[in-house]
Amino acid sequence: MIDPAILVTQIIGFMIVLWVLRRTAWGPILEKIEERRAKIADDVASADRLRKESEALKQKYEEEIQAIEAQARERIQLAVAEGQKVAEEIRTEARAEADRMREKTKTEIELEYQKARAALHDDIVRIALGAATRLVDEEMNEDRQRKLVDNFLAEIPGLKTS
Protein backbone atom coordinates (compact mmCIF):
# COMPACT_ATOMS: atom_id res chain seq x y z
CA MET A 1 0.00 0.00 0.00
CA ILE A 2 0.89 3.56 -0.44
CA ASP A 3 1.71 5.62 2.50
CA PRO A 4 -0.01 9.03 2.18
CA ALA A 5 2.68 10.84 4.16
CA ILE A 6 5.42 9.63 1.80
CA LEU A 7 3.26 10.46 -1.19
CA VAL A 8 2.63 14.00 0.05
CA THR A 9 6.32 14.42 0.90
CA GLN A 10 7.30 13.28 -2.58
CA ILE A 11 4.73 15.56 -4.22
CA ILE A 12 5.96 18.51 -2.12
CA GLY A 13 9.58 17.62 -2.92
CA PHE A 14 8.74 17.35 -6.61
CA MET A 15 6.99 20.74 -6.51
CA ILE A 16 9.99 22.30 -4.77
CA VAL A 17 12.32 20.81 -7.37
CA LEU A 18 10.06 22.14 -10.13
CA TRP A 19 9.95 25.56 -8.53
CA VAL A 20 13.75 25.65 -8.10
CA LEU A 21 14.28 24.42 -11.64
CA ARG A 22 11.85 26.98 -12.95
CA ARG A 23 13.61 29.76 -11.11
CA THR A 24 17.16 28.73 -11.88
CA ALA A 25 17.22 26.51 -15.00
CA TRP A 26 13.96 26.92 -16.88
CA GLY A 27 14.43 30.63 -17.67
CA PRO A 28 17.96 30.29 -19.02
CA ILE A 29 16.98 27.16 -21.00
CA LEU A 30 13.98 28.94 -22.56
CA GLU A 31 16.17 31.99 -23.19
CA LYS A 32 18.77 29.84 -24.94
CA ILE A 33 16.06 28.13 -27.00
CA GLU A 34 14.64 31.53 -27.97
CA GLU A 35 18.12 32.80 -28.90
CA ARG A 36 18.68 29.67 -30.98
CA ARG A 37 15.29 30.10 -32.73
CA ALA A 38 16.07 33.76 -33.49
CA LYS A 39 19.53 32.87 -34.79
CA ILE A 40 18.07 30.16 -37.05
CA ALA A 41 15.42 32.61 -38.31
CA ASP A 42 18.14 35.21 -38.99
CA ASP A 43 20.27 32.63 -40.77
CA VAL A 44 17.32 31.57 -42.92
CA ALA A 45 16.50 35.22 -43.71
CA SER A 46 20.16 35.88 -44.48
CA ALA A 47 20.34 32.82 -46.73
CA ASP A 48 17.19 33.97 -48.56
CA ARG A 49 18.62 37.47 -48.94
CA LEU A 50 21.94 36.06 -50.24
CA ARG A 51 20.11 33.72 -52.61
CA LYS A 52 18.06 36.65 -53.99
CA GLU A 53 21.20 38.76 -54.32
CA SER A 54 23.02 35.93 -56.11
CA GLU A 55 20.07 35.45 -58.46
CA ALA A 56 20.05 39.19 -59.19
CA LEU A 57 23.82 39.12 -59.83
CA LYS A 58 23.42 36.04 -61.99
CA GLN A 59 20.71 37.79 -64.03
CA LYS A 60 22.88 40.92 -64.30
CA TYR A 61 25.89 38.89 -65.45
CA GLU A 62 23.81 36.96 -67.98
CA GLU A 63 22.53 40.26 -69.41
CA GLU A 64 26.09 41.60 -69.56
CA ILE A 65 27.27 38.41 -71.27
CA GLN A 66 24.45 38.71 -73.82
CA ALA A 67 25.37 42.36 -74.42
CA ILE A 68 29.04 41.40 -74.85
CA GLU A 69 28.11 38.58 -77.24
CA ALA A 70 25.92 40.97 -79.25
CA GLN A 71 28.81 43.45 -79.38
CA ALA A 72 31.18 40.69 -80.47
CA ARG A 73 28.79 39.58 -83.23
CA GLU A 74 28.44 43.19 -84.37
CA ARG A 75 32.22 43.67 -84.42
CA ILE A 76 32.69 40.44 -86.34
CA GLN A 77 30.09 41.55 -88.89
CA LEU A 78 31.82 44.93 -89.20
CA ALA A 79 35.19 43.22 -89.65
CA VAL A 80 33.77 40.90 -92.31
CA ALA A 81 32.19 43.86 -94.12
CA GLU A 82 35.47 45.79 -93.92
CA GLY A 83 37.36 42.74 -95.21
CA GLN A 84 34.98 42.41 -98.13
CA LYS A 85 35.33 46.12 -98.87
CA VAL A 86 39.13 45.88 -98.81
CA ALA A 87 39.04 42.77 -100.99
CA GLU A 88 36.82 44.57 -103.51
CA GLU A 89 39.16 47.56 -103.50
CA ILE A 90 42.11 45.24 -104.11
CA ARG A 91 40.26 43.53 -106.97
CA THR A 92 39.32 46.90 -108.48
CA GLU A 93 42.88 48.14 -108.17
CA ALA A 94 44.22 44.91 -109.69
CA ARG A 95 41.80 45.22 -112.63
CA ALA A 96 42.82 48.83 -113.16
CA GLU A 97 46.51 47.86 -113.02
CA ALA A 98 45.90 45.02 -115.49
CA ASP A 99 44.07 47.43 -117.81
CA ARG A 100 46.94 49.93 -117.57
CA MET A 101 49.46 47.18 -118.31
CA ARG A 102 47.35 45.96 -121.23
CA GLU A 103 47.13 49.48 -122.67
CA LYS A 104 50.87 50.00 -122.17
CA THR A 105 51.57 46.68 -123.89
CA LYS A 106 49.26 47.61 -126.77
CA THR A 107 51.04 50.93 -127.09
CA GLU A 108 54.45 49.24 -127.05
CA ILE A 109 53.31 46.67 -129.63
CA GLU A 110 51.91 49.44 -131.83
CA LEU A 111 55.16 51.37 -131.49
CA GLU A 112 57.21 48.27 -132.39
CA TYR A 113 54.87 47.60 -135.31
CA GLN A 114 55.36 51.16 -136.57
CA LYS A 115 59.14 50.80 -136.17
CA ALA A 116 59.12 47.50 -138.05
CA ARG A 117 56.98 49.04 -140.77
CA ALA A 118 59.31 52.01 -141.08
CA ALA A 119 62.32 49.67 -141.17
CA LEU A 120 60.61 47.54 -143.83
CA HIS A 121 59.77 50.66 -145.80
CA ASP A 122 63.38 51.82 -145.55
CA ASP A 123 64.60 48.37 -146.66
CA ILE A 124 62.22 48.34 -149.65
CA VAL A 125 63.26 51.86 -150.66
CA ARG A 126 66.93 50.91 -150.35
CA ILE A 127 66.44 47.72 -152.37
CA ALA A 128 64.41 49.57 -154.99
CA LEU A 129 67.06 52.25 -155.25
CA GLY A 130 69.71 49.56 -155.50
CA ALA A 131 67.76 47.83 -158.25
CA ALA A 132 67.14 51.11 -160.05
CA THR A 133 70.83 51.92 -159.87
CA ARG A 134 71.69 48.54 -161.37
CA LEU A 135 69.14 49.00 -164.10
CA VAL A 136 70.54 52.32 -165.03
CA ASP A 137 74.10 50.98 -164.98
CA GLU A 138 73.37 47.99 -167.17
CA GLU A 139 72.14 47.64 -170.66
CA MET A 140 68.42 47.69 -170.90
CA ASN A 141 67.07 44.94 -173.05
CA GLU A 142 63.80 43.08 -172.36
CA ASP A 143 65.37 39.83 -171.08
CA ARG A 144 67.81 41.65 -168.95
CA GLN A 145 65.08 43.86 -167.39
CA ARG A 146 62.93 40.80 -166.63
CA LYS A 147 65.87 39.05 -164.95
CA LEU A 148 66.66 42.14 -162.82
CA VAL A 149 63.01 42.49 -161.70
CA ASP A 150 62.91 38.76 -160.77
CA ASN A 151 66.15 39.16 -158.78
CA PHE A 152 64.72 42.26 -157.10
CA LEU A 153 61.53 40.43 -156.14
CA ALA A 154 63.50 37.45 -154.89
CA GLU A 155 65.41 39.75 -152.52
CA ILE A 156 62.13 40.90 -150.87
CA PRO A 157 61.14 38.26 -148.32
CA GLY A 158 57.61 36.92 -148.54
CA LEU A 159 57.00 37.82 -152.19
CA LYS A 160 56.81 35.14 -154.87
CA THR A 161 58.23 35.69 -158.27
CA SER A 162 56.04 35.17 -161.36
Radius of gyration: 62 Å
**First CA to last CA: what distance?**
174 Å
Overall mean pLDDT: 87
Residues in β-strands, percent: under 5%
Largest sheet: none
* E-strand count: 0
Low-confidence stretches: none
**Count of DSSP helices?**
2
Offer a quick outline of the entry.
It is built from 2 helices and no strands.
Task: Looking at this protein, list some descriptive labels.
single chain; 162 residues; mainly alpha; 91% helix; rod-shaped
Topology at a glance:
Layout (H helix, E strand, L loop, with lengths): L3 H134 L4 H14 L7
Helix pairs in contact: 1-2
Tell me what you see in this structure.
Helices cover 91% and strands 0% of the residues. The chain has one domain. The chain has helices spanning 4-137, 142-155. It has 162 residues and is an all-alpha fold. The longest helix has 134 residues, at 4-137. It starts with a helix and ends in a 7-residue tail after the last helix. 0% of the residues are buried.
